[in-house]
């Protein structure tokens, strides 16, 4: 029995007698998570075994020694990190107003290992598909996390085929009427679009062969949430998307990947001869790359009265960089490049690892260090009771957290809860901590010894300023 089969057998034993709310065996969920990763191209044995055992420590620590003996310390490490990640819950009704600048950093810090995050995303993608079994409030909370937390992370990590699932299933829960209107629109156009793609590709390949251009051609129909985002773009431009989204014509897309820059423009000229170019739709990011470094030729063509196709044309090198390099899909699609270079550099140190996990079998490597995230060692990321993410320097205390929110909150701070447990003001914060400040209405002046507790310049500044007002000489002497 190979190790994958051994892991399946152990998972069945661990989850024997465990059932989900819909009555299915918990093992069925575990196997679907495994299949999602495998179908996404993941072939790394350590990742796949860990996926099968990802929840094995949730109910008991007893399998630890058995897991280490059968599958090695690396699998056990991933499973332990996964358990720690799941214990850090987001305590808010809606994460849609998250400061997106910190979402990625927070989850990278919490996950510590890129493989842990891969398994978590597969788990969330499976869970959102069965979220209908939950009560409304819990169902909507799961959908909001899928849409505003896990989907952006998934995009950053190359999609893994999970992004569409996370977005569409969450969209269906949060906006069912719009979802089914768009689904109806897609179903109505699907047959026509697929027929057009098939006929067009045949013609295009004949023409390209005559020009000795070997092009890789991909095409797709946009998913429901993607079309919904397109409708919001229409509205922002003063265009009515239609009561049932019927005015949205660009629901399909094609991508051409060729060998040279010259061939990019030749392909575009061929398309102009076949179809009518949509005015003001052309963007040449080859000659004028985006700030992220992304390069591609974008255009849109009206192929008939009711259908517009968006087109991307790029070289293999541009495509490689777009998918795995400095212009990773997330940075131009989600505009994360505007956040500054630190997040790009931190992630790009590791981004090639995604390619290794997906396309190489590296089971013979000792990869624990290889797959470790370059962490944001200078900062910790903690949650407010509302779910906002606060960035603080490593070593920051509860007092620093209070002053980072507001000067008055710091002055009146009398205690706190960390992860719903009472803690002291001098307690140093860790990634993922949920911090709730307790205040005293009668306390408006900080204590002088707080200067020894505070670690940030902001907190020290506010404390000194308040103490000067009360006792200038003693404060200055201190």
From TrEMBL:
GO cellular component: plasma membrane
Coiled coil spans: none
TGS domain span: 378-439
SMART domains tied to this protein: RelA_SpoT
PROSITE patterns: TGS
GO BP terms: guanosine tetraphosphate metabolic process
Family: Belongs to the RelA/SpoT family.
Descriptive protein name: TGS domain-containing protein
Source organism of this protein record: candidate division WWE3 bacterium RIFCSPLOWO2_12_FULL_36_10
Lineage, uppermost ranks: Bacteria, Katanobacteria
């Amino acid at each position: 029995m190979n190790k994958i089969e051994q892991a399946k057998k152990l998972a069945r034993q661990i989850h024997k007698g465990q059932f989900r709310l819909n009555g299915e065996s918990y093992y069925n969920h575990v196997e679907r998570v495994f299949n999602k990763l495998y179908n996404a191209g993941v072939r790394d044995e350590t990742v796949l075994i860990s996926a099968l055992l990802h929840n094995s420590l949730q109910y008991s620590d007893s399998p630890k020694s058995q897991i280490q003996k059968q599958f090695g310390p690396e699998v056990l490490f991933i499973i332990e990190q996964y358990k720690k990640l799941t214990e850090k819950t987001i305590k808010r009704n809606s994460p849609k107003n998250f400061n997106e600048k910190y979402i990625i950093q927070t989850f990278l810090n919490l996950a510590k290992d890129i493989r842990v995050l891969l398994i978590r995303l597969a788990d969330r993608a499976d869970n959102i598909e069965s979220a209908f079994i939950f009560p409304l409030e819990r169902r909507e909370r799961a959908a909001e996390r899928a849409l505003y937390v896990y989907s952006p992370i998934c995009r950053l990590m190359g999609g893994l085929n999970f992004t569409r699932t996370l977005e569409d299933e969450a969209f269906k829960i949060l906006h069912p009427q719009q979802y089914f209107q768009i689904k109806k629109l897609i179903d109505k156009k699907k047959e026509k679009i697929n027929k057009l793609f098939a006929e067009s590709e045949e013609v295009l390949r004949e023409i390209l062969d005559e020009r000795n251009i070997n092009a890789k051609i991909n095409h797709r129909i946009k998913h429901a949430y993607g079309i919904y985002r397109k409708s919001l773009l229409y509205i922002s431009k003063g265009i009515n998307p239609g009561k049932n989204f019927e005015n949205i014509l660009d629901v399909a897309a094609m991508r051409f990947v060729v060998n040279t820059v010259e061939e990019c423009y030749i392909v575009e000229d061929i398309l102009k001869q076949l179809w009518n170019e949509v005015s003001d739709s052309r963007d040449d990011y080859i000659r004028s790359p985006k700030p992220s470094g992304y390069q591609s030729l974008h255009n849109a063509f009206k192929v008939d009265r009711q259908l517009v196709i968006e087109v991307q044309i790029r070289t293999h090198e541009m495509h490689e960089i777009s998918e795995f390099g400095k212009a990773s899909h997330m940075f131009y699609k989600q505009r994360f490049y505007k956040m500054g270079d630190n997040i790009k550099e931190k992630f790009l140190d590791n981004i090639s690892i995604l390619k290794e996990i997906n396309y190489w079998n590296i089971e013979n490597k000792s990869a624990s260090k290889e797959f470790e995230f370059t962490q944001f060692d200078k900062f910790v990321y903690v949650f407010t009771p509302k779910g906002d993410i606060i960035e603080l320097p490593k070593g920051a205390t509860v007092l620093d957290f209070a002053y980072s929110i507001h000067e008055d909150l710091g002055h009146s701070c009398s205690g706190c809860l960390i992860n719903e447990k009472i803690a002291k003001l001098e307690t140093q914060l860790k990634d993922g901590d949920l911090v709730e400040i307790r205040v005293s209405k009668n306390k408006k002046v900080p204590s002088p010894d707080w200067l020894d507790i505070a670690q940030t310049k902001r907190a020290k500044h506010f404390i000194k300023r308040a103490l000067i007002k009360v006792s200038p000489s003693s404060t200055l002497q201190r």
